Amino acid sequence: MAQGTVQVTHTGTSRWRRRTGEYSSLAAALEAAADGDVLTVAPGTYRENLVLERAVTLRGPEGSPGSVRIAPADGVPLTVRASAVVQDLHVEGQDAAAPALLVEDGTPELRDIRVVTRSAAGIEVRGAARPTVRRCTVDNPAGIGIAVLDGGGGVFEDCEVVAAGQSGIAVRGGAHPRLERCRVHHTSGAGLSATGENSALEALGCEVYEVRGSGVHITGRATGHLTDCDVHRTTADGLTLDTDAVLTLADCRIHDIPENAVDLRSRSVLTLTRTTVRQFGRNGLSVWDPGTRVDANQCEIFDSTGDYPAVWVSDGATAVLDSCRVHDVPDALFVLDRGSRADVVDSDLSQVRNTAVSVSDGATAQLDDCRIRDAATGAWFRDHGSSGTLSNCTLDGTQTGVIVTKGADPTVERCTVDAPSEAGFYVSAGGRGTFAHCRVTGSSGYGFHVIDGCRTTLRRCRTERCARGGYEFADGGPDAAPGSGPVVEDCSSDESGGVRATAVRETAVQTPAPAPVLPAAVPEPRPEVRPAAVDAPGQPARSSKDVLAELDALVGLESVKREVRALTDMIEVGRRRQQAGLKAASVKRHLVFTGSPGTGKTTVARLYGEILASLGVLEKGHLVEVSRVDLVGEHIGSTAIRTQEAFERARGGVLFIDEAYALSPEDAGRDFGKEAIDTLVKLMEDHRDAVVVIVAGYTAEMERFLSVNPGVASRFSRTITFSDYGPEELLRIVEQQAEEHEYRLGPGTGEALLKYFTAIPKGAAFGNGRTARQTFEAMVERHAGRVAQVAEPSTDDLTLLYPEDLPGLP
């Protein structure tokens, strides 16, 4: 057959009617062909726009794949509108507004076709078309790889999208394709996407990877079903569901995801069965919004590469984990916000660096027949309205088994905590909780530790082999309400100091504890490091008015002064409302200071402490300034001790942590700085009225620091930004320094200083106020060298600074 010719084998009802003809163009061959005819295309490039409207077979020569190129200058290279067979062709398109291969009708079979194009879509299927597409490849860096639209369907087997400028495979408009053993990679949009009501995507044995976006995106009431699929190496979330999307995963693998492995919101529903989620940078499962729900059965979530909870449920969403394993993660399950709920049944949570289960902001969690092992904290019910049930659970190898704080009120029944390093159950800060038929064995601290006069109920609980005692009920203090404290019924211990076994309901006798054991990796502080009173005896405290006057005298910092005054006013009015018997708004006093060095952050922190002391909020108001070197130790356990010691030194005052972002370096690995952060968060929670914490540093670095631990950002009420000083403000600082040291600026010196501070480089070495003070000191030094040469200097000689005394620019 000649180059560039098309051979048509005409078939008929009887063998003798079969005949063969050759045509010089594809269009002519198609015109002559009838249903059932076979068109064999000779090698070559055909600049024709083909339209198949009969049930013919169009193929390239056997043994020469890719030798036939369909490559018109514009338009759709190949359109199929019948139940034809097309195989062994190379299709090239150049029209950005049209697909390269369009299937509009029939049930054609497309085999071994390679589409290399820069078109709107590589292959587009629409309407009533139901093709079977086998072993086809699409390379379309300008648009969608495969688009199935407007009710289209079909089966795609062993196909590959090697590049796409948008989604790899896009389904919308009620389309419903099935993918079998397909590969999608190197796309600039989602790997697989389905959008719109009645749109459905089914994938079996497929792989999605190297995607610059989400691996799978289902939205707008679309549905999806993935079986035995792999999604990995995306730049965004692995799977994204929103706006009433429904997705089912069975026997799938989601891994190597830098963001959320699965993110769903806006009433989406996800069902996972026997699916593994691993190596994710943020959440393994991130579930948001009322009506959004995830059901996971026999799944495994593990090996987090970031510092975020493996399962995050918030804003009224629901998560159900049945027979699942979550391990080797920073935190296993966080449930936040009223209406949010997590139900965990017969599951294992292990190798958790921080908290296995955290319930806060009015959320609910229920754990039945679960096992929590090797976690810093087993379960933490954090605040008012946060509740739930732990039933028939075991907690082994935790630092603290269960923590209840700030009005949370869970029910814990028939649970066992074995070998906690600090306490089996810890209740503080107004926490409540009911503990029934619970058991603590082998604690290195207490079994049950209830402080602050918390109204906790213990029924038929037992402790064994607890090093510091089975039960410890610390005094609620002089302001404790009458009758406060735990209620104990029929509890027992093998310790001589345990609670008496009794059949009568009673309020436990409260005895002061020497120092409560904190629910974190914090050993008891050594007595010798507890500081004496910082203030000198008899030293009168300044009034808030006096301290604010000193603040107002500082150069610049106008926005900072407004922020501090607003805080002071809120605290003062709250105090007066309390005195009048009214409710006072809760004001969080912990602050974040951001800005460059030398902008007055330490000075303002010191004044802020004095203001709080003058208002009676803090006992002393002194400032303890620390940095990473003061908090982070060289070996396991020492960081917690150092952090607690610094916190104790600041008790009654302000703990100021400069360059706080250094506690969480970007390449942290196994850095102990995170231990300092976790310890600090726990101390701030448990002693929130004793110490005000201010963290400070460069703006961008502090934003990253606040994102490291979910508990960090919530502890700070506001961020105050300290702007760099302008030339005029730096001049005023020099003038203040000169006046303080009995110098004067000579004629022209002020103008020279303004030019100097305008020209001075404002890079990383620029120290703001420190630069101004260093400039003054350099001027004094140069002045001294000049005046020392004068035999009998006058008063003006000794006090006046001139432009020639300015140092050179750095």
From TrEMBL:
Domain AAA+ ATPase: 587-726
Taxonomic superkingdom: Bacteria
Keywords from the named record: ATP-binding, Nucleotide-binding, Repeat
Domain spans labelled Carbohydrate-binding/sugar hydrolysis: 41-172, 313-474
Protein's UniProt keywords contain Transcription regulation: no
Xref: InterPro entries: AAA+_ATPase, AAA_lid_6, ATPase_AAA_core, Beta_helix, Carb-bd_sugar_hydrolysis-dom, CbxX/CfxQ, CbxX/CfxQ_RuBisCO_ESX, P-loop_NTPase
Listed Gene3D superfamilies: 1.10.8.60, P-loop containing nucleotide triphosphate hydrolases, Single-stranded right-handed beta-helix, Pectin lyase-like
Segments traversing the membrane: none
A Pfam family the protein falls into: Beta_helix
PANTHER family the record matches: AAA-TYPE ATPASE FAMILY PROTEIN / ANKYRIN REPEAT FAMILY PROTEIN (PTHR43392), AAA-TYPE ATPASE FAMILY PROTEIN _ ANKYRIN REPEAT FAMILY PROTEIN (PTHR43392:SF2)
Family in the record: Belongs to the CbxX/CfxQ family.
Protein name: Right-handed parallel beta-helix repeat-containing protein
Organism of this sequence: Streptomyces thermocoprophilus
